[in-house]
Amino acid sequence: MSSAAPDSPRPAAASSPAAGGRRRWFASRAAAPGQVYGAPGQGKSTTISVATTIVLFALWFLITNMGWIKPLFLPTPQAVWDKFILAATEGVANSTLLEHTTTSLMRVFGAFLLSCVTAIPIGILMGTNRVMRGVFDPPIEFYRPLPPLAYLPLMIIWFGIGELSKILLIFLAVFAPMAISARAGVRSVGIEQIHAAYTMGASKFQIISRVILPAATPEILTGMRIGIGFGWTTLVAAEMIAANRGLGFMVLNAAQYLQSDTVIMGIVVIGLFAFGFDLLMRRVERVLVPWKGKV
Amino acid sequence: MGAPSEALSIDGVSVLFPGRRAGEQVQALDNINLTINPGDFVVALGASGCGKTTLLNLMAGFLSPSRGVLRLGQRTITGPGPDRGVVFQKHALLPWLNVIRNTEFGLSLQGVDSRKRQEIAAHNLALVGLQDFHQHMIYELSGGMQQRVGIARALTCNPATLLMDEPMAALDALTRETIQELLLDVWQKTGKMVFFITHSVEEALFLATRVIVMSPRPGRITNAYEVDFNRRFLECRDARKVKSSADFIRMRETVLGIIYGDERGEGPGVETAHV
């Protein structure tokens, strides 16, 4: 019954061992100097993240090398690394890894750039103009939740099996979150800031270009990060369309021959590029909008 | 830009807002008549909801009257413009610009070349005591300093009038007193007419050449007092002495009596003001 930890000063902790354990985990501790008392989840988590990665990797290494799981289900890290070297030098699926990667990057970033020059202005227009909001809101809200695989056949029928349909499919996935973020960004400008600019003789155009656009920049950048994320998730779907090169194609092709090592290698490469670009965008955010969240 | 000799006049202005139910109307302001002459420092006092901010929004041009007309000099006010500078309750500065760029923002909108606008902005920042903070970002400043940038910015387009909507409400008591004194200095040096909203009777009496007391439902001006405590301060430079003088305290009690009487629902005082 009284299995509570001996160091627990509160008699209530003795009521149940489970409650005692929970109490310790979430217990209020005295704040160290320079820390805020009671702020949830404060402190750095980088070390823990690195440790988690190492543990997961070690588990993977252990399980596969001890032969506890068949290579078809999970190949060893060495096999994946060997595949990476093979793909980088001789190539898999008729192309080298570099060729696969550049092809996919062209598609994803092509769609991303196309989206930047269309979705951001349209989002700003939707935020600042009643008619534009009325025009663009129904189509965007309608197609946004659809899975890209659902309209993939239409893209092929309409735009053929070349690069255009692939880039358009990714573009559609990137477009909606970017437009919606830009539109939401317009809402983040204070009406007093707009009024202030008007009292200094601003024109409607200046209000948009000198007040609304800068104020919306943090959310536009967030939209770009979310958008490119959707772009990466749509890459494999896009490369289902009669592709003969690309990371998504490489993965799909390997899946048909049950080459799990190539599949995992492809996933890791895609993941690293996506993560790397996100880190870059976070840096851009710090440089462009140092005032974010401070006002 | 308004010549300094123009008065701001409000003639028979009423404002009706649509009410909660269809067809219902709320009278926010009822038949307001007020003239602010060059050099005037008019402070509006009153309980929440008495239409002070509505009145300021009309002067700024953010709102059109349902009846009546507002003029600056001979021109009818139909929208906001650089002849009326506004200082907001929350500073409303642009956080992506530093102090000097915020201050010169209005001039850059009007295409004034950068040497000239920096000169003017620097002059106005010096006027509010921020000459050493040109390169600071807005979020690096204290609330009082942000509000001082707001004042400098409002002065930059050389407006005929400064409209201030509770600019000190968010400041602590000490900062508030400093900025009150600073504002009187700016007022004396620039000769702008000022329309200023506050909840603090003491602040109103200290700053104003004329205090107008408003009452709610519908918003009306019920009393007006000509006072000269600000000139007394500018002569003796001792705010405590002015605020603790017998006249000041008597005046404060009178005005407080009117406002509290109002809030207890006894209706406005009978001596309707001639303003």
Structure explained in plain terms:
The complex is a heterodimer of chains A (295) and B (275). Chain A has helices at residues 17-25, 46-65, 77-89, 97-128, 130-143, 148-159, 163-187, 191-199, 204-238, 247-256, 260-288. By secondary structure, chain A is mainly alpha-helical. Residues 1-20 of chain A have low confidence and may be disordered. Chain B is α/β, with parallel strands linked by helices. In chain B, 37% of the residues lie in helices and 23% in strands. Chain B has ten helices and ten strands. In chain B, the strands form two sheets. Chain B has a six-stranded mixed β-sheet with strand order 6-7-8-3-9-10, sandwiched between helices. A four-stranded antiparallel β-sheet of chain B has the order 2-1-4-5, with helices on one face. Residues 265-275 of chain B have low confidence and may be disordered. The A-B interface holds A 190, 192-193, 195-203, 206, 210-211, 214-215, 217, 289-291, 294-295 and B 60-62, 79-82, 84-86, 88-90, 92-96, 105-106, 109-110, 137-139, 153-154, 156-157, 159.
